[in-house]
Design goal:
about 375 residues, alpha+beta, Restriction Endonuclease, 3 domains, five-stranded mixed β-sheet, 16 helices, about 10% strand, elongated, binds zinc ion
């Protein structure tokens, strides 16, 4: 009896020892593959996808053979996160890393979920709660189309550093003064380093800092306006560069189909405050005029803003009278961190390819990323 027990125990120990060796081997291989992928030239979207397929596979094979404990798997996930975040961004929210890309996450497959799916209902429940927290953020996109708003992540054509920066900004995880003082309880001032006028939050830096409104915000806005203008030139067969980025808008452009004004002060009979819209398009064939108002606000009450286009209503009335056309105002609004509302619909109205909405969003995000880097002195 004692002997049999001994044999059983020895066998167990042998299995246990070889388990440890195998696990170590697996862990090393998993780590090696992640590192290789991170060093590759893949962009943010593709690198995660590649980790999910190529690196996680190693673990999946071991799932039925090795007896992983929950702790071991969690440690491995932690190791993976550490490696990934070092490249993508150091302060990314954990739940977010695992959230699906079309929900604004980065879509990493956790080893834990891969191997012990059914055994970790509890853990999943916790993760579900974390996701719910993130979704609360997503609500700032309010009634906007979440899938559309996060399309830039899903498409994955953004540089991984920039993608990391934007997601960290959305999660309020950037090292702003406000965060350092109020969240991390460091000593110092929480006021904006550009001019001390308000707390230095991500929101402040991206949309309400008066010190950079005329420079950085204007640059971001103008780039966006330039993109819209380029699209209009394309649509009406006016001369334009092949790449929108090289496009410079001229004050007045005209052909038999259209007249396009850029940042142009319009002479009116009546006194009108706002008479210098970003772009005015007079379609001669349709005898219709669009006043295009481009804005990159910080908060996401886009719907409200899209409805509230009062600013140029007086001008619209005046133009209808002066130019004898029907006129309406078209808002092109995109939130600093990428949320969009009815933009696609408005672009369609201008007969601009609705797919351009991606590029418009992309341009705004790049502008915001540049501002964050500059103010917070983040290399990239
Ligand atoms: Zn400021």
């Amino acid at each position: 009896m004692a002997n049999r027990w001994k044999i059983w125990a020895m066998g167990s120990i042998n299995t246990w020892v070889s388990d440890i060796k195998m696990k170590e081997k697996t862990r090393k291989e998993y780590k090696r593959r992640i590192k290789l992928l991170l060093r590759s030239k893949l962009n943010g979207g593709n690198v995660i996808r590649a980790i999910n397929t190529w690196a996680v596979t190693v673990l999946r094979y071991s799932g039925g053979i090795l007896n992983w404990t929950q702790e071991e798997l969690q440690n491995m996930d932690r190791m993976a996160r550490k490696l990934i975040n070092r490249t993508l961004h150091p302060r990314a929210n954990v739940a977010r890393l695992y959230l699906q890309r079309n929900e604004g996450g980065r879509g990493l497959q956790s080893t834990e979920e891969t191997i012990k799916t059914e055994e970790h209902v509890l853990k999943k429940e916790r993760r579900r709660k974390e996701k719910a927290l993130h979704r609360q953020y997503a609500k700032i996109a309010d009634k906007t189309d979440i899938k559309r708003t996060y399309k830039w992540i899903k498409n994955g054509y953004m540089k991984k550093e920039t993608e990391g920066l934007i997601t960290a900004a959305q999660d309020q995880a950037l090292p702003t003064r406000w965060r350092k003082v109020k969240i991390e309880k460091q000593s110092g001032k929480s006021l904006c380093r550009m001019g001390n006028e308000r707390d230095e939050t991500t929101f402040h830096i991206l949309s309400e800092c008066s010190k950079i409104a005329q420079t950085e915000y204007k640059k971001r806005h103008d780039k966006l306006a330039q993109l819209v203008h380029w699209n209009l030139c394309k649509r009406y067969g006016l001369q334009h560069e092949r790449n929108w980025y090289d496009h410079t808008a001229e004050k007045v452009l005209e052909n038999e189909k259209v007249k396009i004004l850029w940042d142009f002060s319009i002479q009116t009979d009546h006194v009108i405050q706002a008479r210098r819209p970003d772009i005015v398009v007079k379609d001669k064939e349709m005898n219709h005029t669009w006043i295009i108002d481009i804005a990159v606000p910080g908060d996401a009450r886009i719907e409200e803003k899209e409805e509230k286009i009062e600013k140029y209503q007086d001008l619209a009335r005046e133009l209808s009278w002066l130019w004898m056309t029907s006129t309406n105002v078209v808002p092109v609004i995109i939130v600093t961190l990428g949320a969009v509302g009815r933009l696609e619909e408005f672009l369609k109205m201008l007969e601009v390819d609705e797919k351009e909405v991606d590029r418009v969003q992309f341009s705004a995000l790049l502008g915001s990323a540049r501002i964050l880097r500059k103010v917070l002195d983040i290399p990239g």
